[in-house]
Amino acid sequence: MTHAHIDLAVIGGSGLYQFPGLENATRQSVDTPYGPASGDVVIGDFAGRRIAFLARHGESHTLPPHRVNYRANLWALHHLGARRVIGVNAVGGIRHDMGPRTLVVPDQIIDYTHGRYTSFCDVEGAEVRHIDFSEPYTSSLRVALLEAAKRADIAVIDGGCYGATQGPRLETRAEIARMKRDGCDLVGMTGMPEAGLARELELDYACLALVANFAAGCGDEAEISIEEIFAHLAAATAGVPPILAQLLKS
Ligand code: HPA
C-alpha cells in the first residue's frame, strides 16, 4: 500500500511503544532502500482521522538510539503517504523550568551525535542537496501542536534547544555543563538525525519532548535512576494522545 491518506504520523519514543486508542489498526511492513525500519508501521483511526504510528526503538524497546535506522523510519512513513510527522522524544531537562514530566515543543537543535547515517544523499551519483535547516522544525506544525495542547488544557513549554547526544549512556555532569553553555535546554538521544532526514524528505516535522529527569548535575539527585525516568515518562506520556487528538481536529 502506498500513498494512502494519512493525516499524521507519530514516531513514539521511550515509553510510547503503541498508540493508545487506535481503531481499525492494520500493520504495514515496508521494504526500504535503507534496510528495515524499527518495526511495522501501525495505521489506524484516531480522533476520526488516519494516523500512522512507528515505535522508534521497536515495540519491545530493543533498538538503542545509535542503532535506530532513522533513514528507513522516515522513508517508510513518507512512502506510506505521511506528510506531517510528530516525533515524541524522552529527554532530560537542563533548563531549571524543564523538570521531570514537563512537555516541551523545542525550536532549535544542536547535534552532538556521531557515526549515524545523517542524510539520504550518500548514494554514489545521487544529487547532493544542502537543505536549509536554520529552523529545524516546521514552524506551522509547531504552532499547531502548541495550540492543540492549549485546547487540550495541557501545559507545554514553547521553544527550547534540543541537544542530541549519542547515548545510550547518560551524560557526565561536565558534558551537560558544556551543553548548557552551548545553549541547550534539553538533552535527548534521538532527535537527530531524525529531524534533518524529515527535512530532506520535505516532511513537516515537529518534536514533542517529554522530560523524564533532570539532566546530570541539573537536579538534586547524585545519580539518575532509570526507574524514576520511566515513572516520569509514563506520567508525561499520558498527555500525548489528548494533544494529538486536538491537533487532528484542527
Ligand atoms: N540524557 C539524554 N537522554 C535522555 C535523558 C538524559 O538525561 N533522559 C531521557 N533521555
TrEMBL record:
Positions of the record's site feature: Important for substrate specificity: E171, I226
Residues that bind substrate: M189, N213, F214, A215
Domain of life: Bacteria
Signal peptide: none
Pathway: Purine metabolism; purine nucleoside salvage
Enzyme Commission number(s): 2.4.2.44
Reactions accelerated catalytically: S-methyl-5'-thioinosine + phosphate = 5-(methylsulfanyl)-alpha-D-ribose 1-phosphate + hypoxanthine
Family annotation (Pfam families): PNP_UDP_1
First-tier enzyme category under EC: transferase
Residue span, Nucleoside phosphorylase domain: 8-237
UniProt entry keywords in alphabetical sequence: Glycosyltransferase, Purine salvage, Transferase
CDD domains the UniProt entry points to: MTAP_SsMTAPII_like_MTIP (cd09010)
Residues at which phosphate binds: S14, R56, H57, T190
The keyword 4Fe-4S is annotated on this UniProt entry: no
InterPro entries per the UniProt record, alphabetical: MTAP, Nucleoside_phosphorylase_d, Nucleoside_phosphorylase_sf, Purine_phosphorylase-2_CS
Membrane spanning residue stretches: none
Family: Belongs to the PNP/MTAP phosphorylase family. MTAP subfamily.
Note: Although this enzyme belongs to the family of MTA phosphorylases based on sequence homology, it has been shown that conserved amino acid substitutions in the substrate binding pocket convert the substrate specificity of this enzyme from 6-aminopurines to 6-oxopurines.
Function: Catalyzes the reversible phosphorylation of S-methyl-5'-thioinosine (MTI) to hypoxanthine and 5-methylthioribose-1-phosphate. Involved in the breakdown of S-methyl-5'-thioadenosine (MTA), a major by-product of polyamine biosynthesis. Catabolism of (MTA) occurs via deamination to MTI and phosphorolysis to hypoxanthine.
UniProt xrefs under PANTHER family: S-METHYL-5'-THIOADENOSINE PHOSPHORYLASE
Subunit-structure text: Homotrimer.
Name the UniProt record assigns to this protein: Probable S-methyl-5'-thioinosine phosphorylase
Species name: Dyella flagellata
